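Researcher: Here's a chain I'd like modeled. Treat it as a single chain, no partners, no ligands.
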Amino acid sequence: MLQILKVSNFKCFENLELPITALTLLSGFNATGKTSSIQPLLLLAQSIKSTGSINKLSLNGNLIKLGTPGEVLYENSKSKSIILGVKTAEAEISFELNLEKRNPNRSCDIDSINFLDVETNSLLKLNNVNELLSVEEKSASSLIRKLKNIIYLGISRFDYEELYPSPNELDLVNADVGTKGQYAPWHFSEFGDQDIPISRHHKDESAPTLRKQLIAWFDYIFPGSEANSYHVDGTPLVKLELRNSSTGEWRRPSNIGYGLSYIFPILVACLLAEKDQIIILDSPEAHIHPEGQSKMAQFLSMIAASGVQLIIETHSDHILNGVRLAAMKETIKPKDITIHFFNKIPRSEQDVAQITSPSIDHQGNISDWPDGFFDQTEKDLSLLSGW
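Model: Modeled as a single isolated chain. Structure tokens:
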């Protein structure tokens, strides 16, 4: 499991060391670095997936599109290099990127790789990942595989369609439903009879299959709702159907509430993910009623407790409170929850720190409430009541 994300000279960060745990929430003001803090993970994953190694960093691909090297360099940087790194309990790896060399495909050359094996305390400085894998095969390949298998589900969804595509990647990443959820119907149809780890089972559903467990969790968040998908004979296409009661008619996604089709890929990816796999979610609360948002957060807490690492960007106090409830109910241990609040970027030494990290205890209490941290409801109510 990743423990720390490190970046230097990347976008709005001169230097950043961001602790992450089984469940990490990124919250805060707009344009303060929440998305930028996780983009290095997407860049590394994208580069490994596209080339099978990392000799160049692909700035533009299926996961993320950032433009040119100059656009990702910290604006006050005194050098033309960027460092991206991650740390686990077993190893630490960092990539130094050279932005001096221009590449027509808008990629960045990797000048060097620093790899630290924690067990042996040996530090290696290498030129490429293939050289690294040949020297430290076990710990290095595990970390590279972890990065390669990252799943990213953005806030946008695949346009309403009657039929959905099948993934065409030769080396398909487990549970990768696509950045817009476009492959979720295929996964549900293809792996509907696959058993899900018991730690992810809904308490009221004894059948272990993906199909039964997804419907149980679907009903938990949207009472009465169900999902179904199946391959269309003779084509690579898949049809998705939804309904809001067990006796209702099956409908195409465009003819039923958008929230159902929005959460469907989240449930598929989370239930199918392997232990230690990383899922990055942008705004899982979108298009969901507040009660459903709280339940979604409790579901995600359960998934994190089962061994999947989740990094979630959110603006929802209902997501936060759902996680607090999960801690109080002992669904997840407080030590496995990390919250980062991104404040406005400091412009002087007198400004508050850009990132503060409140903690949650076993009762769901928050240790610190910095100004702007999910407090707008209280501020508005105080004005309405004349306090």
